[in-house]
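DM from R.C. (forwarded with permission)

"hey, sorry to bug you on a friday — could you get me a structure for this? deadline for the figure draft is monday and I only need the backbone to look sensible"
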Amino acid sequence: MKTFVSFLFFALYSVSVATSQPINRGTVRGTVQATSGKALEFTTMMLLKSTDSTLVKGVVSDVDGKYLFENVGAGKYLVSAQQLGFRKTYSAPFTIDEAQPALELPTMTMTDESKRLAEVNVVAKKPFIEQQVDRTVLNVENSIVSSGNTALEVLEKAPGVTIDRQNDQIQLKGKAGVIVYIDGKQTYLSQQEVSNLLKNTPSDNIASIEIITNPGSKYDAAGNSGIINIKMKKNKNLGTNGSVILNSGYGWVRDLNGNLLNRPKGGATVNLNHRTSKVNLFGNYTYFNRTSNNSNELGRVITYNGQTNYFDQLSFRPSQSVNQSFKAGADYFISTKSTLGVMVNGFSNSWMSDGVNNTFIRDENRRLISQPVTQTDANELLKNLTSNLNYKYDFDGKGHEWTADVDYVRYNGNNSNALSTVYRNAEGALIRPNQDVRNRMPSTIGIWAFKTDYVRPLKNGAKIELGLKSSIVDTDNNTIYDTLRQEQQQWVFDASRSNQFIYNENINAAYANYAGNIGKLKVQAGLRAEHTHSIGNSITMNQRIERNYLNLFPTLFLSRKLDTNNVLNVSYSRRIQRPDYQNLNPFVFYLDPYTYQQGNPFLRPQYTNSIELTHVYKDKISTSLNVSRTTDFINDETPRQIPEKGITYVTAENLGSLDNIGLTVSLPITIAKWWNVQTNLNGYYQHYQTFYSGSPYEVKFVAMNLYMSHNITLSKTMSAEVSGWFNSASQYGFYRAQPMGAFNIGVQKKLMDGKANLKLNVNDPFWINQFRGRAVVGDIDFRVKSRWESRRIALTFTYRFGNQNVKGARERNSATSAEQNRMKGGN
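My reply, with the result:
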């Protein structure tokens, strides 16, 4: 690592030295500034022939606004200056000859472009995938094929993002542990619960999705692979406006008997925004109702006392989910410097499923021994209410500010599950009494958090940021199991399976961050300290685990603009991934009598050190090389077995180390004015090293993800989009996943003079998207195949009313910025 950073500094210094060598012909130098007298750095300066304005040379001004054209031949010239937000400015013509080989031009002053913005009619459309210097942005509202989908389905199209639907995992560049924000606020949910939330968030409510692989010290250190920030749609300026979004669709699947089923879904969203010079009021409400199906095929080979049995399991789970969410808030502008804001948002998500699991148990000769059938009836209800009080003081309108946030978040969950198993032999006769089990899992999570941030600009564009944060988390999870006594037909409390788990956690953090320039090198360096005190208490098992630790998390970002077209960036960060609250809970969640999931109260945090080198060409083509090492890697799906009972279960465990090397390329291409193509390729190498049941376990492999979209303009009011993605075979922990992929087609028509639009979208028309994987390690030989309702057609209608220039609520990151991603549901 040290050698690599030293090499990078040497390379950047070499470029600087190389561009400052003496030249033999004439030179033209000067300075560019704004009307305020402030020097304008990184302004594009072009040396033009005065006769026909053809380009001779191009340079970029430095941090002091100075520029230099070297090796200029004799002739008549002029200089132009261009920078976003300013009018294009020209110098007076001048001559370079033997009598005047070196010339210093008068200072060029550029006028603010905002003085004539009212005359500009902006018609440019952002690409679906936009590569910025420090993040990748998905402009969802510009995408046709994203309409009528869910947020999770949109994320599948993001470069470097992989959705493992079998385990409800979101991976970024081959690594799990992604932290998800919504409008700058962390969701405070586990990976599994985040996946469920995004499944029920309509994409038509989303403006953009930001993917940040190496966040700075201002962000919480949580997250192994980075941050995904989902920005919901907002509005602009004074007045009142709103929008109504209606969507409906159908999905198609086949059940275990091969019958084709269609599953309807639909929803509606209302957005309102009202703004005056003193107050901004905003709110929205979404209702989403969808039916869907999921089928699984599980195959297991279990050997015990020299005897081998084969377990083949087929399951089909139709389900229905009803989801409602809302947001309401206000900003009060106390003065030109002070703003007080309040916001309340929440959701109510219910999920119901009644499924069947067929198990076929065969002996070593593949002869059928028995065929248990388990009927499942699951109900889940999760409610959330988040309140936020925030204050901002702007000292001088030039970035010198202080902000403070106080948050309270509460989750209430009430899940239940009933399993009824009938045991039959190969001929279908009953061989043992039915087994009926039911459970209730009430849970509550309360989170208090406070944070404050101070930003102070310094000279020459530098600034310093300081901040404090404290959070208190209290969780109470209870699992109550009952078994049915067949003789009396009476439910009896099952103490051996029931358990109450209480978890308390306090995290206190402080950070300092500096951003500035060293010559032509932009530097941002920060340090974050986090102290964690946690107590996990299993009441029923009389087991108490306390942890108390302090960690430091440094970050470093370097950026060098090599010339007009090329920018080189490098970043380093250290991050922590704490266990999900529910992963620490030793509860048991049953799929059937032979398959279940269990928590692990002994989980430790995992730590990741990562470095990333990125080259950006013409603000479009981006190439990124990243290297990371994770220690105490948490694998949520570690398979374990109880062979004498034919049971296979999964649990979360720390697995040793994971090394990752990845290369990401983002390539936008314009084939014609009406045809644009976006291609993103992510390749990575991973190396797992750990122990399984006391024996060494090591895996090395190479994988890749590919995404491509074609955007076609058919007319002034009609456009189309075709996109597709492919994930090669990959590895996650002990599981090797087979290749996956799909493509989508969409058409959009603008109506009512642009106030409305209609989008038709077809997802995965040939139903090729499915998950297939296998784990072979120790005594485990386990394979799985999962299919879901990926083949779907959706129609979305959007109508906007009122003043469409109403400015929306302020972007702000609340105090609850790292805890919600660790709240886990019972799916």
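R.C.: lifesaver. The helical segments are 2-18, 151-155, 191-199.
me: no worries. The chain has three helices and 49 strands.
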